């Protein structure tokens, strides 16, 4: 039988609290899904790895580092599960790096899909987000995604529409990179007659740069912009990885890739 290894590839975070809440539960559950399989993590963000190295903390390496370690551990085939939200440029770069290893692992490299990959995924994620953030009278739920290049932002909008179809007219979407941005969010919340909003990162984990772009203390931060428009805004920095139902979607994608 071909021995399979498993990699969890995420952007990573320099915040240990965020790692413990949003990444480590997914690490544990992936290990349990394939008991006894060689396992490695990869952090896809060069800045995150550099900052962690400066602190002297143990740092997951690159995807190439993880694949090399699993090959050295005797894995003949590897499944890489990206902890990404959509099929953007980061996913495409990961695919390219994984394909370069095809000739170095007898069984090849299988890559799992990101979170929002199918209509079923969108429905499951919408249910998970709605359950974690119940409707509050007079308050908007503003989901904030990174955004992706190359026309990959469609699934974010589909998720917002699915939430509304599930009875959440309070759901709004904003993207740090792309449209709709903060101006559209402010206009939409005001047009809906809502006087308050909760900002929720639509990311596996929300790091320092997200806090700087969203928090009221940041010049031009989203929370500050909403408050300046007369909307009482608060910020929930929990990442999607903290939600068991979200982790299940990633696990299902990893199992599908392992079977492929």
Automatic annotation (TrEMBL):
According to the UniProt entry, its GO molecular function terms are:
sirohydrochlorin cobaltochelatase activity
Q: Which Pfam families match?
A: CbiK (PF06180)
Annotated protein name in UniProt: Cobalt chelatase
Q: Which GO terms describe its biological process?
A: anaerobic cobalamin biosynthetic process
Top-level taxon of origin: Bacteria
């Amino acid at each position: 039988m071909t021995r399979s290894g498993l990699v969890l590839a995420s952007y990573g975070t320099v915040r240990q609290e965020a790692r413990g809440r949003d990444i480590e539960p997914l690490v544990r559950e992936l290990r349990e899904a394939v008991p006894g399989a060689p396992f490695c993590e990869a952090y896809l963000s060069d800045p995150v790895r550099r900052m962690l190295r400066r602190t002297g903390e143990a740092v997951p390496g690159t995807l190439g580092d993880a694949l090399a370690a699993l090959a050295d551990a005797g894995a003949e085939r590897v499944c890489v599960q990206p902890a990404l939200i959509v099929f953007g440029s980061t996913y495409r770069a990961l695919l390219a790096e994984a394909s370069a290893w095809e000739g170095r692992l007898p069984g090849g490299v299988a890559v799992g899909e990101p979170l929002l990959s199918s209509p079923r995924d969108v429905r499951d994620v919408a249910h998970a987000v709605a359950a974690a953030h119940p409707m509050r009278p007079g308050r908007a739920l503003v989901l904030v995604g990174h955004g992706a290049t190359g026309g990959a932002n469609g699934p974010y909008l589909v998720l917002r529409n699915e939430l509304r179809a599930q009875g959440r007219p309070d759901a709004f979407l904003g993207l740090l990179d792309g449209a709709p941005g903060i101006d559209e969010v402010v206009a939409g919340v005001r047009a809906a007659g809502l006087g308050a909003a909760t900002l929720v990162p639509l990311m596996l984990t929300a790091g320092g740069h997200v806090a700087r772009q969203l928090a009221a203390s940041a010049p031009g931060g989203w929370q500050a912009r909403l408050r300046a428009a007369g909307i009482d805004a608060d910020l929930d920095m929990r990442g999607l990885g903290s939600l068991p139902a979200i982790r299940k979607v990633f696990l299902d994608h990893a199992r599908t890739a392992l079977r492929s």
